[in-house]
Design a protein that fits this description.
Helices cover 66% and strands 0% of the residues. It is built from 48 helices and no strands. The protein starts with a helix and ends with a helix. It is found in: Nucleus.
Length: 1065
């Protein structure tokens, strides 16, 4: 290795070490320690040398405050008092400051530039120390040092060369920032000459040098600025982006010299501006034609920069210059945008680099417009200009196809548009209007494959809802009134309904008003042949919107209001039904008023009762409007339930649960969401008998027999062999699990059996899937409903076709026909004269036909699977209701009744997802109970720790019943084989035991609890026995450590006793 290579390697190691240290923000003590007021010495040794090195190291820190403090310390160490001698200052300029500009370490250039600018100000500014104290440091000498220390020499790498060039650029910029150029033409000419030479070194240095010139112009004065423009013209920079930027900067700094300076945006010179901004020609050509052959007019064409994501600084100056005039510059801006951007950077002949630059210009312009939006610069006037024809066409084409070169740039531009609407919601509607009208397309998201319009629609301000609906409806109205293609009309109507569906998340009142109008009384501009289509589509999306609102109590008010605003006059009804709907609407209005007067606290209160009933009446009215089957019967059941609840009659809660079970049995997400909301509102009034109705569902068999027990299916419709086969399949470990993600709905040909023998309403026709998240028990349901309906229709049509094909085949073979085709059939000959061979051939043909029939007949396996799915899905929905009850009534001892059925469900079900769902309910119970006890302790001063019969608000617990439940839980734990079941049983055991221990203060009850857990205590000899238990022990071992219920109980009891003793002391 040569000596030079070794030196380079060591220097690289030192630079890397310094960069690592510079990235760490130094402590303030380290800065103040070395920032003492002490001048640098000529020959620094020992502590002085360490202090000097440390200050220059801090000067390259990436922390701004650290750099400033270090710069102040260095300047003080050079000029405080009488200042350092000239050799010391020259040494620092030569070996420290100018040399440090060529370093790429951290923020060295920024920190060193601060000190150099101040040194230049002291030397050549008002103090003029270069004349009085440091005569050897003339301008030529300083520039010589700068060029010497920033001149790339020898065999350098590309990065090292760039560091030297940037160091020289920063050094020249320091002269402009030092404020010493005004009136000093000789100095400025020298600096300007060096800048032009540096710009010719590398093409990427040209914009940087031009930016330094524009930054210096405000400090030069008008006369020197005009001189600068003459030099720019002499250097043939006029027809370049840098030349345009310098002219506009001079015009902005000295508007009084407009006539002398000239305006690059003037109508006489504007035609040449697009070519300049395109950055694709040689600026030295000055309009002359370039030749590609060597000869008389041969010129060496300058290398152009590669396309970059960094926009040229001339665009900042151009946009600020034009937009600063406000609305008065609209005409000028329109001409500029059309010529320089739309017809320049987005033409068919434009390169990909130029189109990328156009996207960047659009992003910057949109940011400037949004930032300056005011009465003087209204967005409504400027936005249509920038959403121009060629730009929008290029944007949509590039965003739609991933194989396009500018696909990511187009997507980023659309994200920028969305971000603008997010930052300022006032601009969401104007941006939306320009995307779907004018040069945009109504189905913008479909065209681009994005969700741009969808996301912007959901960011509209609620008060701008009416205006947004008007913007969205205009293209659809135009298509419906002028379009002749029915498919195109339906497509735009579908897009319009989808936009309204999304708008409901941001402006629910305006969106629901328009959706309900389309669903029940379409406007006159909707064609008659598309009215039924838009009605059905709007009702589906309206139902999905209601399902979204029903997930939250505060949003459910919009649901009730929307239904109340639908005029019954739009729906054809007979007199009896119209009277019933009128009465229901009056009760709904009264219940809504009553609910608004009461606080919204889950589980109790008249306000919750009114809120729950209003939701039920809303659903009943909505189903009647949609002509759903048995909707009138649901309205009658509500009348009876409402009457019982008002009179607080016995059995009111059971009657309500019957209604809710009939609702969750239907294939409507909205009804299931509403049932959970209503059940939560009535949770505090649910009796033990009503709760038992829900728990009975969990014990049903997951087969045809279980479906027969749950639903009103005639016994003749069920084959006993199927029931036996179902039982056999349940015992098989390889039974196919019903996945949670494919929640197939309950069969529509079954009816739920209620306690009073009434039949529940038939399932409705389905519901569109809401886009927001749903509860765990509903994952996948909404996505599969439409598919299930389509599959059912296909199966029915295929079955009919198969039967018809078999009839035709039999007719051809036998020469006969069906009885209903006597008139169309011709007379047939008798087959009495058929030979034996013909009879055998006929027999083979008949066998083939019936084999084909058997092949296409429904499989019993599929029927059994459908029966199992019906039961499993019904159990999932009941689990959702139970979870709602637990969240509201975890502190109520009546909720203990849900534990044992949940454990048995986990053990007996063959569907793992159902067992996991039951386990989640048990864990939710444990969490909510702990929280309820903590809140009660805080509010009542330890009320939960008082024995029964002491104080107020004490929970009453039946000791015998609770102890019996504890024993049943322990017995169930022994019967289980899986670890999850054991964990759930341990949690249930602790819930029951702690309830008995806390609320029953008598000694026998607590002793009985202790005795039950002592039975579970493990002994050393139990370990050897467990090894011989075989399959059960093996399964638990494979799934993790066993659960020790006795230790869990002992830990809880010891913690409780210690807490109680602490409170007593």
């Amino acid at each position: 290795m040569t000596r030079t290579a070794t030196a380079k390697r060591k220097r690289a190691e030192r630079e890397a070490l310094k960069a690592e240290r510079a990235n760490k923000k130094p402590k303030t003590d380290d800065i103040t320690k070395h920032a003492e007021k002490k001048l640098f010495v000529e020959k620094s040794t020992g502590p002085d040398r360490i202090r000097e090195a440390k200050l220059y190291e801090l000067l390259g820190s990436e922390d701004f405050e650290t750099r400033v403090l270090a710069a102040e310390a260095v300047i003080s160490s050079l000029f405080d008092g009488d200042g350092v001698p000239e050799p010391v200052l020259e040494r620092h300029l030569d070996w420290r400051l100018f040399r440090g500009l060529a370093s790429g370490r951290a923020a060295s250039r920024l920190g060193y530039s601060l000190v150099i600018a101040e040194v230049l100000r002291q030397l050549f500014g008002d103090n003029a120390l270069s004349r009085s104290k440091y005569p050897g440091l003339t301008l030529d000498k300083v520039l010589e040092i700068l060029q010497q220390r920033t001149r790339p020499t020898g065999n350098m790498t590309g990065q090292e060369e760039r560091d030297f060039y940037f160091g020289q650029l920063f050094g020249l910029e320091c002269f402009a920032r030092a404020g010493i150029l005004r009136g000093n033409e000789a100095m400025w000419r020298t600096i300007l000459s060096l800048l032009f030479k540096l710009a010719d070194k590398k093409v990427w240095l040209r914009p940087q040098c031009g930016w330094v010139v524009t930054e210096a112009l405000p400090e030069l004065g008008l006369d020197l600025t005009l001189t600068t423009l003459d030099i720019v013209r002499a250097e043939k920079w006029t027809k370049s982006p840098e030349g345009v930027a310098i002219s506009l900067a001079a015009l902005n700094a000295y508007p009084e010299g407009r006539k002398t300076i000239g305006n690059p945006l003037d109508a006489r010179v504007l035609p040449s501006l697009p070519v300049i901004l395109k950055e694709s020609t040689d600026p030295d050509a000055s309009g002359e034609e370039e030749t590609s052959t060597k000869g008389k007019n041969n010129k060496k064409k300058k290398k152009q920069p590669n396309w970059s994501h960094q926009l040229h600084f001339v665009w900042d100056i151009l946009l600020k210059h034009i937009l600063s005039k406000g609305e008065a510059s609209l005409e000028e801006f329109t001409v500029f945008w059309r010529r320089c951007v739309d017809d320049n950077l987005f033409t068919k002949t434009a390169t990909d680099g130029q189109k990328l630059r156009g996207f960047l210009v659009f992003q910057k312009t949109l940011t400037e417009l949004v930032g300056q939006a005011s009465d003087q610069c209204p967005l409504e006037s400027f936005l249509p200009v920038i959403f121009s024809k060629n730009l929008m066409a290029c944007l949509m084409n590039q965003a739609a196809h991933e194989d396009r070169y500018l696909h990511r740039a187009a997507r980023k531009t659309l994200s920028h548009v969305e971000q603008a609407a997010l930052i300022d919601q006032d601009v969401a509607t104007p941006i939306l209007e320009n995307l779907i009208t004018g040069n945009g397309v109504f189905s913008f998201d479909v065209r681009t494959g994005t969700k741009t319009v969808e996301n912007i629609v959901q960011r509209v301000k609620p008060e701008a809802g009416e205006d947004t609906v008007g913007v969205l409806s205009a293209p659809a109205m135009k298509t419906c009134t002028t379009g002749k293609d029915l498919d195109k009309v339906k497509l735009d109507l579908r897009v319009y309904v989808e936009y309204l569906f999304k708008l409901a998340n941001a402006a629910p009142e305006a969106a629901l008003k328009e959706l309900t109008a389309l669903a029940y009384a379409p406007p006159v501009w909707v064609p008659s042949n598309a009215a039924d289509f838009v009605k059905e589509l709007s009702r589906n999306r309206l139902q999905s919107t209601f399902a979204n609102f029903s997930r939250k109590n505060e949003d459910s008010t919009h649901l009730c209001t929307a239904i109340e605003n639908i005029s019954p006059e739009y729906i054809p009804m007979d007199a009896k039904l119209k009277k019933a709907v009128g009465d229901a609407r009056r009760k709904l209005k009264s219940l809504m008023h009553e609910a608004s007067q009461e606080p919204n606290e889950a589980g109790s209160g008249e306000g919750n009762t009114a809120r729950g009933l209003s939701l039920l009446y809303t659903m009943a009215i909505f189903q009647i409007y949609n002509a759903e089957p048995d909707a009138f019967q649901l309205l009658g059941d509500l009348e009876e339930c409402h009457s019982r609840l008002r009179k607080d009659q016995e059995g009111a809660a059971e009657f309500l649960v019957e209604i809710l079970l009939s609702m969750v049995s239907q294939d409507s997400i909205l009804l299931r969401q509403i049932s959970q909301q209503v059940f939560g509102s009535f949770a505090g009034r649910i009796s033990a008998a009503a709760l038992e109705l829900l728990l009975d569902v969990l014990s049903a068999d997951e087969n045809s027999k279980g479906r027969q027990a749950l639903f009103n299916i005639e016994s003749d419709d069920v084959d006993p062999e199927d029931i036996e086969e179902d039982s056999d399949e349940d015992d098989d470990d390889d039974v196919e699990e019903v996945q949670l993600d494919s929640d197939v709905e309950i069969d529509s040909d079954v009816e739920f059996v209620t306690l009073n023998g009434a039949e529940a309403a038939d399932p409705d026709s389905g519901d569109a899937s809401p886009d927001s998240e749903s509860e765990p028990d509903e994952e996948g349901e909404d996505a599969d409903e439409d598919e299930d309906e389509e599959e059912g229709e296909k199966e029915s049509s295929e079955e009919a076709k198969n039967l018809e094909a078999i009839d035709d085949a039999l007719g051809k073979i036998l020469g006969s026909h069906r009885l209903d085709k006597d008139k169309d059939a011709a007379s047939s000959d008798s087959d009495a004269d058929m030979t034996d061979s013909e009879m055998l051939a006929l027999d083979d043909k008949l066998a083939a036909v019936f084999q084909q029939r058997i092949k296409h007949s429904p499989s019993k396996k599929k029927e059994r699977k459908a029966a199992k799915e019906s039961v499993v899905n019904f159990k999932r929905r009941v689990l959702a209701l139970l979870e709602t009850y637990i969240r509201a009534e975890a502190g109520n001892p009546a909720a203990l009744a849900v534990l044992l059925p949940l454990l048995r469900l986990m053990r007996t079900t063959t569907v793992k997802s159902l067992a996991d769902r039951a386990f989640e309910v048990v864990k939710e119970y444990q969490k909510r109970l702990r929280k309820a006890r903590q809140e009660a302790n805080k509010e009542k001063g330890g009320g939960l720790l008082r024995p029964a019969g002491v104080g107020v608000g004490v929970v009453v617990v039946d000791p015998e019943k609770t102890l019996r439940l504890l024993r049943d839980v322990h017995a169930e734990a022994e019967a289980g084989e899986m670890v999850d079941h054991a964990k759930a049983a341990a949690a249930a055991s602790l819930i029951v035991a702690s309830t008995l221990y806390l609320y029953v203060a008598d000694g026998p009850s607590r002793a009985a609890v202790e005795a039950e857990f002592v039975k579970l205590e493990r002994k050393p000899e139990d370990g050897a026995k467990k090894k011989k238990k075989g399959k059960k022990a093996k399964k638990r071992k494979n799934q993790g450590d066993e659960v020790d219920m006795y230790m869990d109980w002992k830990q809880w009891r010891d913690n409780y006793e210690s807490t109680r003793e602490g409170k007593g002391s």
